[in-house]
From TrEMBL:
It holds the Pfam family Cupin_2. This is Cupin domain-containing protein. Residues 69-133 form the Cupin type-2 domain. It comes from the Bacteria.
Length: 321
């Protein structure tokens, strides 16, 4: 594969194209400044304005959320796995029907394998624009987003309504549901009772991995972060590992399915049969299946990189409570 061909599989941080109208809370005060990015796969955006950088199926989706300080993403759930790692800033994740069942603060590099089937939200609690990178299970990401009822009600007060097909309509722009199309129904009280309300103590130990703990484990071999025998033992349809300078190797290798490289710190030189490229934090690279390659730090200083690859496991429930 030539360098020019591989560049089509690299999304540079500076080239990310945001969508500010991706979800139903795009007009709701406190959530109206967030930006959504769909990097690999179709994602779960409810807006036709969402740009998809790489549409090649990987068995999972890669996306990102960028938010200024005090901006939050409203309470929602997914039918498949949702994993976040912090690229920039400091973030608070919260969960439960009303967002008060539990919470955890994440720093740069930390990763959170959010249990499926639980309402969750997050906000930038840092002082600057923050960015979190996301991995969603399945090629279709579970068919969209399930919103807490109050989110849909609040959105309607600010002009956005959602059809039962998951498409947004902005009544402030004169848009209306087409004839015969119904509004997205609110979850009933009986349905809401099926959504768990785990505490912080129940969630954090098995679903959160801290950056420096992972770095320590990756001193000689890549740290297995998410997987059946990893720090966070789970089978969400993909596996995640962290590489550092100590565990990176020049030895060429290949995978039987596409894999993704996402630097957290430092610059990384990826070499393959046909060329090489340098990745910086925030860049995302899709490595084709069967391609011999290797990734090593290209400069001095701290260097860490997340590696994601799909598995044959279902992309479904990750809550073990």
């Amino acid at each position: 594969m030539t360098p020019q061909e591989m560049e089509t599989r690299i999304v540079r941080y500076g080239d990310l194209r945001p969508c500010k109208t991706a979800f139903i809370d795009a007009h709701t005060p406190g959530s109206d400044q967030k930006e959504n990015f769909t990097i690999i796969g179709g994602g779960v955006s409810e807006s036709p304005d969402q740009h998809v950088h790489i549409s090649i199926p990987h068995g999972f989706n890669i996306g990102a959320a960028g938010q200024p300080p005090k901006c939050r993403n409203s309470l929602h759930s997914h039918r498949t796995a949702e994993v976040f790692f912090v690229l920039k800033g400091r973030w608070r994740f919260f969960w439960g029907r009303w967002g008060d069942a539990g919470e955890v603060m994440l720093e740069e590099g930390d990763i959170f394998n959010i249990p499926t089937g639980i309402f969750r939200g997050f906000e930038n609690i840092g002082d600057d624009y923050g960015m979190i990178m996301a991995i969603l299970g399945g090629d279709d990401a579970g068919g969209g987003v399930i919103w807490a009822p109050q989110v849909i009600e609040d959105a309607a007060d600010h002009g956005l309504v959602l059809s039962e097909e998951g498409k947004l309509y902005d009544t402030k722009k004169g848009e209306a549901l087409p004839e015969g199309v119904k509004l997205m129904p609110l979850l009933s009280e009986e349905e809401l009772k099926t959504y768990p309300e785990p505490t912080t103590a129940e969630v954090v130990p098995g679903y959160v991995a801290r950056y420096w703990d992972m770095v320590a484990l990756a001193d000689r071999t890549p740290a297995k972060v998410i997987g059946p025998d990893a720090m966070l033992r789970d089978r969400p349809g993909f596996e995640v590992a962290l590489l550092t300078r100590g565990s990176a190797t020049e030895e060429m290798h290949q995978h039987d399915r596409p894999s993704v490289l996402m630097p957290v710190t430092g610059h990384w030189r990826v070499t393959w049969e046909g060329g090489s490229a340098t990745l910086a934090p925030g860049d995302t690279m899709s490595v084709p299946e069967g391609l011999m390659h290797t990734a090593v730090p290209s400069m001095t200083g701290a260097a860490a990189l997340y590696h994601i690859i799909g598995t044959d496991d279902p992309a479904g429930s990750t809550w073990h409570g």
